[in-house]
Every structure is written in structure tokens, then in C-alpha cells.
Design goal:
301 residues; alpha/beta; Trna Endonuclease, Chain: A, domain 1; five-stranded mixed beta sheet; two-stranded antiparallel sheet
């Protein structure tokens, strides 16, 4: 299972509440003194996940890297991103890693990369590591709103999920912000897929009315609702949910592919959008890491 669609969902949460992420990761900041910067590090044809700009009491950057799968080169990339951001912006850079699931854990990540060259002094690159499954769910339930959808990933057992979802709904409903609620529930739905099966997720979120107001669901459940009028509302909603995940996977592959390879040709984009099997799309998303062109990615499709 590719982690990228889930990472992209969490990036949206950083956009929703950047000050909350700074606070959670150890900073003290006023919301008005925080913003996002363009994280595209085009000098190496790659991009950091999300970079938050903090202006007070002095200018510094927080690079938040979200990861749901193992990567042997990950720690070296953290160092690379930090150096490039410092070079480009000329300010201190702090790095934080948020690992989303235990099955993608990188046990060697301990917050310190030690460098010991044969000539000159040894030195260290330090960063913050958060393993979501090791944190108590209450930390996300009562913390910054932008981290609330991480709470289900932090529960000890499936038996804890109903209470966690209920607490989430109480907090989200209290805000009375329908667009924000839709975004948070959509993120919750996507991120729960990292750990729980679809049937359980659908059962737990079935009573959340805001699910149908997320941007993805508004656009992609329309067909499911239409067919649901004749075949039953439940069946229509299930089909719409599957189509939503499929289209989001295609969107993410196109977005990441454009960053790595450049724009696809019309034929290449048509080939990709014709893929309707979610499992196949996940395989393609995973291959993005290893290939160097659209042709290589789509070979055999």
C-alpha cells in the first residue's frame, strides 16, 4: 500500500492549522506569526512535505515530514532538505518527522544523524520524531485541531475507536464550521485506512453527516447517490466512496509525477486516468519512488 495519498491528506491538515503543528512539536507561537512557504526544492527535483514559516520572536522554518512507509535513505533526505532550505532562506531550520503507522516504522530513526568524517570534527544533525501509534489518543483529541484526525491511529485497540470518534465529533461540532468539519472528517476517513479495514471505517463513520460535505465526496459521491436512489442509499454511498478513493489516488499520482518527471503527455495522462482498480493505482504510486519517467511508470498498464 502506498503511503503517498495518506501523506498528502495529512499535508492538508498542516495547511489547515500550521500554528497548531508548531505548538505540538514544541514551539511557542502566535497564529498570526505563522505561515507556509513553497516547499518545492527544485534544485534537486524533489520537495519537502510541508514547510512552516515562523516569524516571531525571530524568523525560522519548521520542515514537517510525514511518512507512512519505510525508506532506507529517509534520514539522509532529511539532512538534504534542511541544508537546502537553510541555503535558500538563510534562516534556522528545524525538522520534525511524523511516522503514521507501525508497519512502516523506521526503528533506526532516533532524532540524531551522526557524521564522522576521517578529516575534521564529527558533527550531528538533529530532528524530532513522533511515532503516532506510541502517543495516547487523548494527546490528539485535546491538542491542536489540525492534528485531530490522527487520534484513531493512536488508539490501543479497535475497541477504543467508537469512543474516540465520538469525542472527535463533539469537538468538531462545537466549532460549527462546516467546511472545516468536512475537511477533518475526510482526512480522518483517509488516514484510518492506514490501520483499519474499510468495513470498520464505514461502520464507525456512517453517522457522521459532514463526511458527505468534504470536497472529494461532493464531487465523487454524486454518481453513488444517483444510483442509490434505485439500488438503495447504502449501496450508492459505498460505490461513491470507492470512486472517491480511486480518483484521489489518480490525482496524487499526477501531482507527484509532475514534480518528479514533468507534465505527462495527453496519452500518458489518459492511460493513467483509465485505471480504475484502486490496488493497481497503489502499486503505481509505490513505483513512483523507483522510476525516472512517465513511460517507466506506466509500462505494462
Amino acid at each position: 500500500m502506498s503511503g503517498k495519498p495518506y501523506d498528502a491528506t495529512t499535508k492538508e491538515l498542516i495547511e489547515t492549522d500550521p500554528a497548531g503543528w508548531v505548538t505540538y512539536l514544541g514551539g511557542t507561537v502566535r497564529p498570526s506569526a505563522v505561515g507556509l512557504i513553497d516547499a518545492d526544492l527544485s534544485t534537486v527535483t524533489t520537495a519537502a512535505d510541508k514547510v512552516i514559516r515562523v516569524d516571531e520572536p525571530f524568523r525560522w522554518l519548521l520542515n514537517v515530514e510525514l511518512q507512512s512507509s519505510s525508506d532506507a535513505a529517509f534520514e539522509r533526505r532529511l539532512l538534504q532538505y534542511s541544508a537546502l532550505l537553510h541555503h535558500r532562506h538563510g534562516v534556522p531550520v528545524a525538522t520534525a518527522v511524523v511516522l503514521l503507522r507501525k508497519s512502516g516504522n523506521m526503528k533506526w530513526l532516533n532524532g540524531c544523524l551522526s557524521i564522522a568524517p576521517p578529516i575534521g570534527p564529527s558533527w550531528e544533525f538533529r530532528y524530532r520524531v513522533v511515532r503516532v501509534w506510541e502517543r495516547p489518543a487523548s494527546e490528539f483529541l485535546t491538542g491542536p485541531l489540525g492534528l485531530l484526525p490522527l487520534a484513531p491511529l493512536a488508539v490501543a485497540t479497535e475497541a477504543d475507536l467508537p469512543a474516540v470518534v465520538s469525542d472527535m465529533q463533539s469537538r468538531i461540532d462545537a466549532r460549527q464550521d462546516r467546511p472545516l468539519a468536512a475537511k477533518l472528517w475526510h482526512a480522518t476517513n483517509m488516514l484510518m485506512g492506514l490501520r483499519f479495514d474499510e468495513a470498520l471505517i464505514e461502520q464507525l463513520l456512517a453517522g457522521v453527516s459532514m463526511m458527505e460535505e468534504s470536497v472529494t465526496y461532493q464531487a465523487l459521491l454524486r454518481r453513488g447517490r444517483t444510483e442509490g436512489r434505485t439500488e438503495g442509499r447504502t449501496e450508492g454511498r459505498t460505490e461513491g466512496r470507492t470512486e472517491g478513493r480511486t480518483e484521489e489516488a489518480v490525482t496524487m499520482i499526477l501531482r507527484l509525477g509532475r514534480k518528479k518527471f514533468g507534465p505527462p503527455s495527453p496519452e500518458q495522462e489518459s492511460t493513467l486516468t483509465a485505471v480504475t482498480d484502486l490496488a493497481r493505482l497503489e502499486v503505481l504510486a509505490e513505483r513512483l519512488i523507483d522510476v525516472n519517467s512517465w513511460d517507466e511508470l506506466l509500462a505494462g498498464v
